[in-house]
Each structure stands twice: as structure tokens, then as C-alpha cells.
Amino acid sequence: MGRRVVVAGTFDIVHEGHIKMLWKAKEIAGDDGELIVIVARDENVRRFKGRSPIIRESSRAYIVKNLKPVDRVVLGEKDPLDSIVKLKPDMIVLGYDQWAGERWLKEELKKRGVDVEVVRLPRFGDSSSSSIINSVIKLFCSPKEAEDRPRDLK
To answer: Which of 30, 69, 73, 125 allows an S-S link to 2, with CB 3.0 to 4.6 Å?
Structure first.
């Protein structure tokens, strides 16, 4: 019997690392399991990353929904943990660079009545959304414009 696996993220610029991570999460779910992806709301991207997303939430959700390993997509709640509580997954798969610690996340969800396994996957590939954004900035902005960009995009 497969598992209900949840992955959450911004998915602002989908790249090779995202795809490989989603395939690994689907493999963990199993052939008869379900991979659900929580796509971060625009307001949460601004709150947690300190910048607006490049692609709006509805478009990011549409893109992720159309990736082959993904069974279902939901837009996240204002409190990211509320989405997980509603979905009641068997497992949460974290990307290598996601902010939540495995132990902390497991304990917080247990307080909310959800006993779930949490695993962190390694980095897949060399790309990251930030590195792609930085490359675009270098290609299309003057040095002064690039200097004025938010710190996480330098």
C-alpha cells in the first residue's frame, strides 16, 4: 500500500533539482501512493523570503500540477503547518534547503494531532532558483542595478 507524501515549496522557477526531488518523493510514496505538493502563497513567499515571487501563486500551482510525478497540488495556508494538518500525510519530504528542521516540524505537527514521518532529501543537481535569478540579473542588469537587488538574490 502506498503512502500519502507531502512536499511544500515556492517553486518560483522550476528547475532540474525540483523535478528530481519530486520524482524521489513520488518513489517514496510508491506506485499506489499519492504525492501532494503544497505551493506557497505569494504572501508567504514575501513573509519568509523577504521578496515577492517572480511568478504568481496560481501560475506556480498550474506549472507544478502539470509535472508528471505530482498527483495533486494545493495552495498553502497562511500558517504553513495548517496545510499539513488538513492533508494528514504519512510523510513529509523536505528539500535540502528548506527552513524547517525535521525534529522541530515533527514535534510541532504532533502538538496539532498529526504524527508524521519527516525526511530531508539531499540536493539534486547544481541549479537553484536563486542561482538562476542571479544569472539573469548578471545578464540583464547593470552592476548598479544588481547591487540594489535584495540580499538573497545576490
So the answer is: 30
Query: CA-CA distance, 1 to 38, in Å (whole number)?
Result: 23
Burial class (CB within 10 angstroms; exposed 0-12, middle 13-18, buried 19+) of 111? exposed
Mean of pLDDT over the chain: 89
Q: Are strands 72-75 and 34-39 parallel, antiparallel or unpaired?
A: parallel
What residues contact 130, with CB distance under 8 A and at least 6 apart? 152, 153
Q: 149 falls in which pLDDT band (50, 70, 90)?
A: low
How do residues 34-62 score in pLDDT, each as one tens digit? 999 999 999 999 998 888 999 999 999 99
Record the cell numbers describing residue 45, joined without a space: 513567499
Tell me the three state secondary structure of residue 3.
Answer: coil
Taking residue 130's Cβ as centre, other Cβ atoms within 10 Å add up to: 15
Q: For 4-123, which CATH superfamily applies? A: HUPs (3.40.50.620)
Of 123, 21, 38, 36, the closest CA to residue 71 belongs to: 36
